[in-house]
Amino acid sequence: HVQLVESGGGSVQAGGSLNLSCTASGFTRDDYDMGWYRQAPGKECELVSVINVDGTTKYGDSVKGRFAISQVNIKNTVYLQMNSLKSEDTALYYCATALAGWGQGTQVTVS
Q1: For residue 26, with 0-12 CB atoms within 10 Å meaning exposed, 13-18 middle and 19 or more buried, which class applies?
Q2: Phi then psi dihedrals of residue 108, to 5 deg
Q3: To the nearest 10°, the Cα dihedral for 57, 61, 64, 69?
Q4: Could you tell me the CA-to-CA distances from 55 to 30, 64, 70, 78, 87 in Å, in that order?
Q5: The dihedral formed by the CA atoms of 77, 61, 45 and 83, expressed in degrees to the nearest 10
Q6: What is the pLDDT of residue 31?
Q7: Which residues contact 76 (CB under 8 A, 6 or more apart)?
Q8: Could you give the C-alpha distances from 97 to 17, 37, 65, in angstroms and in order?
Q9: What is the C-alpha separation between 28 and 1, in angstroms, rounded?
Q10: How far apart are the first and last CA of the chain?
């Protein structure tokens, strides 16, 4: 059974940091590109960051320089370090791969 589970969300003040985790089970995570996405109420789903199987990364314009995606293959986990958080970063954050689809999401609230 393939699955993605996100964790690490929470409430933080503007300027603060959070580190999200996405752990894959049932498959080898680094055989697939993985993306972090977010959706705020009333807004479209937005690409936050992607890490490809070759290790290259991509970021949405709104998070460049503030967020960093990384992976620990032995843990089958991808992380999203979020720094200098802003109120507009408030959203439900999801990780996704072509094989496993979407996780259940983790809420990030910045006040």
Answers
A1: exposed
A2: -120, 125
A3: -30
A4: 9, 17, 9, 11, 30
A5: 50
A6: 85
A7: 23, 24, 25, 28, 29, 30
A8: 25, 11, 24
A9: 12
A10: 37
Residue 24: name the closest of 85, 71, 88 by CA.
71
How far is it, in rounded angstroms, from Cα 74 to Cα 19?
18
Averages of pLDDT over runs of 10 residues in the chain (111 residues) are 94 98 89 94 95 95 97 91 98 93 96 96
According to DSSP, the residues that pair with 24 across neighbouring strands are 4
Count of residues in the chain:
111
Instruction: At 29, list the tokens.
Output: 């995570």
